[in-house]
Fold these 3 entries.
Entry 1:
Amino acid sequence: MLQFHSTVAPKRANLSSISPPYAVSCLSSSSSSSQSSSSLSFALSPSLHHLSLSRVSKSPLSSPKQKRINVINGQTQPLKVMISGAPASGKGTQCEMIVKKFGLVHISTGDLLRAEVSAGTDIGNKAKEYMNAGRLVPDEIVNAMVTTRLSLKDVKEKGWLLDGYPRSFVQAQSLETLNVKPDIYIVLNVPDEILIDRCVGRRLDPLTGKIYHIKNFLPENEEIKERLITRADDTEEKVKSRLEIYKQNAESILATYKDIMKKVDGNRSKEVVFNEVDSLLSQFLKEKAIASEKQLKKSLPRQDNWRGIPTRLNNIPHTREIREYFYADVLQATQRAISAGKTRLRVDITIPELNPEMDVYRIGTLMELIRVIALSYADDGKRVKVCVQGSMGEGALVGMPLQLAGTRKILEFMDWGDYGAIGNFINIGSIGANDVGEEDDIFILVAPQNAMGNCIIDDLRAMTDSAGSRPVILINPRLKDLPGSSGVMQTMGRDKRLEYAASFENCYHFRLLYYAGTQYPIMGALRMAYPNEYQLYKRVDEEEEAAGKEKYILLSTFEQRPDVNEINDAFDGKKRNRDKDASGFWAFFNSVFG
Ligand code: AP5
């Protein structure tokens, strides 16, 4: 089996936005399961604007200047969640936590109705008799309330969390008619006897909407305790009636949402219940993001003019033709990624002249690549900031990574063309929040890297925070920790740094493959140019035809960057299970690739 290596390490709240008194012209004769009513017409209370939701509870490229490149929107739609369960199963409690983490707009029909009741509106007066009896309020009222709320802007932007709705088949059908479908339908299951205890012991803070319990969740202080109230429908008798009605309707609603239903055991601590809810929602979001990314990639024109790997890559210096071949490839990949709305991009290109671990590394080639990219965006009218990190460290240890020494000077003195791009459309800066100007459209960062014992990530993070939705392109970054003798970088915030580094998406990747421990001969190459897959090539000598001739043959493609084992297996003609761990000898190479 061939063994390859790369010489480079790869790898509840405010309902204030409810619109002013919304006239609700209720649907006529439809009715809730057992609480049918005649045609109704109400005006919802303006008091809804002040409910506390804690219980009641040009494109991604746009910079401040709003000009720039056309973008295909790669964002996923906001999350839509329904939470259901018997009275006191913990819906409101979980909603509070869901809103905090996922920022959804919480729409609780119970809360909306209670607000109407306390404001003494027509709706409130009508709803009160049903609620106090532990019965469902007529569908017409509730449907109209929810429909209006769902049509508001914040819901469209942030997504929604429907709590206690739909509660009847008619309500579910009302949503279906409007084509309002949740992504996920969560049902909290809790035994009846527990529910009764929870209801009878529940207390509500009328000021914040926060839910307490006389045994399970005590108020934080005496002041809150003093103002707690008990809901009128929280008596044992009424809870039993509410429970009965819930059971009568549950089956008919389930029929509508059975495909997306997730049952959660609600008879555990609220934190444990939330952990499960959280992982269901997070998992859903993750899958949705992957699916939408795939969709986006499919919809993008490939525009890949790549003519295959150029040959004679071992001949140093590379010819102008070879260099330009790569510059064009990198440029097109960044353009496609930016057009797709990507803003945190990473380019890794380690042809021999750009591989700092080889003795033929040429800073001039890196500068030329930067110039091609910067000038191209400047030609499109963008203001480009080319950034090189400054000195790091303190005292006698001050300095900068060797491969960046003198880089800024070279950038300043190099030929940027005759039409005055430099100082106008292209500016040179360093890395940090202070280097982000209002006028800058795109940032190109030259090989940002950690130095021994010094970490560039904080400056980088400050810079990307300031850049907001403007694209930041890292060219050949090296963001792995390089521990210094003090050992500081080994321990402090390592996970966060790695997580941050991983937030940049590879839009271009090219590296040559060699036998382990060598840098000759070239055995193959790995290339990815957004939005295409990783392509694995094998280099073949064509000695029989003409001495010294070579070509690259496409061996395999991968959705994600293949690890060393997958590369080896592809060379061996084997398929490999990605989840299989590398072990022993292979594990060593895997760690090299890291
Ligand atoms: P609504 O307010 O929706 O009442 P509900 O569905 O009966 O639910 P609850 O608010 O009682 O309980 P919950 O599941 O939110 O539990 P909570 O988190 O508060 O509706 C009230 C009325 O409005 C209805 O009866 C009806 O008349 C009307 N209505 C509403 N929507 C309608 C619709 N769509 N159609 C028609 N009519 C409608 O927790 C309960 C207690 O348990 C708290 O004390 C809490 O601290 C405690 N607790 C929560 N989680 C845990 C846990 N994990 N462990 C221990 N204790 C916990």
Entry 2:
Amino acid sequence: MIQAVIFDLDGVLVTTDEGHYLAWQRVASEAGIPFDRTINQRLRGVSRMESLEILLERAPREYTEPEKRALADRKNSFYRASLEGLSPTDLLAGSAVMLRGLRARGVRTAIGSSSRNTPTIVDRLGIRNWFDAIVDGNDVPRSKPAPDIFLLAAARVDVPAANCLVIEDAQAGVDAGRSAGMNVLGVNPHYNLNGPDRQVPSLADASVDDLDEWFGLAPAAP
Ligand code: B16
Ligand code: MG
């Protein structure tokens, strides 16, 4: 039975995945590195520096460590500028209804995100109180596809991994959920993810009753 649902942030609860893409695209274009939405799929869910290494696979020259740090910082400054206009209207369709419905049933809720910008995003959306735990890239040394973020979230909500459901838009996140020994619902309208128990185009395509039918929901022990 599922007693806790761990939500990915970028691309599941909020549209910030597009902000990541546009920021990397700007960095790539300034540096003359080929980059497109297909390559961007590999960046979803992985850390900033690991994303940069994927981007640099197509670079025409080698970059030193200080140059890499500067590129990552530049991407983050573009990305953070895109967060300035973020508001509760940027929550993705279906997320508020699902979170409310889960909490009404006594199912615990958490965020498990690779993003070190999670605190800023959560505060701009005004959703901090909707979660029993928020775990992000600041809390663990290894980001997705390692299971660490999700395992820490499960520990913080005090629910065994086998009783957790991860909701993810990225392959790295599906792999992280699987290697944490959790159930996984994929959410992606464009790409078929490899390995989730089920996949839907968006959270608006799955009700709390659907989650109950597919995975079995139960209140967490008090
Ligand atoms: P930052 P998620 C991930 O968030 C993004 O999908 C990924 O594109 C990004 O590189 C990563 O966070 C790190 O983000 O640069 O803000 O620390 O999907 O795990 O919520
Ligand atoms: Mg994501």
Entry 3:
Amino acid sequence: MRIDVVTIFPTFFDVLEVSLLGKAREKGLLDVRVHDLRDATTDRHRTVDDTPYGGGAGMVMKPEPWGHVLDGIADASDAAETDPVFVFPSPAGERFTQATAREMAHEQHVIFGCGRYEGIDERVFAYAATRGRVRLVSLGDYVLNGGEVAAMAMIEAIGRLVPGVVGNPASLVEESHEDGLLEYPSYTKPASWRGYDVPEVLLSGNHGRIAQWRHDQQVERTRERRPDLLAD
Ligand code: JEK
């Protein structure tokens, strides 16, 4: 899978070189390329923002550097590939969920456009729609300072679903059977630690009882912490 990221803070994405996604990149499963939006500017100050038409607080990202950099990425993309998907993290986007991650893990080419300031001139989204599919996606209902942290979370959630990235595919199979419940609690050795004991059922070797106990824990925790998940 090919992933391009456009940002004014390319070093934010240095962490993609470590851990699971770093290994996936070494193995050639993920081809991630980060582009500095300022390299697509033409003025001496490498300006990417300007004041909003109609007034209001803050600055808005100018369309021209975005047009230039998105053209460069789309023109260079493989002629054999399907249309890329442009993902613009936005507080005004559709909510990013595990279902969104699953859909995007099937794509050949995803391009993340990370805004800053008050966001990106709206015409950039209209233009990108002439070069691929466009989705404005929100990580959640809180306000971040830009799209970078959201894009990073999305890349990790999508990347781990690409076949071969997660070493043990059984963990992904188990996740897909969780049916919208929170996960059950996990324990490892030692069986007794600082006076806290691992629940006896997990030491019993009775796999039927263990499966029942884990399911009960999932339902109980979901009712306490995320009752919204049980609504229907
Ligand atoms: C992309 C710029 C910063 C901050 C003004 C007024 C209510 C805020 C833009 N889940 C998520 N939260 N935030 C983002 C996100 C934030 C971004 C950009 C994504 C580009 N910013 C910013 C304040 C405002 N708004 C009305 C909401 C706009 C995000 C994601 N994904």
